[in-house]
What we know:
mainly alpha, 0% strand
Amino acid sequence: MATMNVSLPDSLKHFVQERANSSDYSNPSDYIRALIRADKQRAAEEKLEAALLEGLSSGPSVSIDNTFWERLNQRASGSA
């Protein structure tokens, strides 16, 4: 595991230590890692939401039926 040093003002350092002590975290590093994982998850959800909104605003929907899949397979195999 890599190490990263982060400078915090005393007020934030105390807050992190208190949160780690009053929660299920074994130390402040566990608390910070949990915050980073939550932020990473939030960023992934925002990216997914943006992609879904882009899809919704991309134009009229296309019916997905056997003909659609056949054409897609043909395009993928280079037949079309």
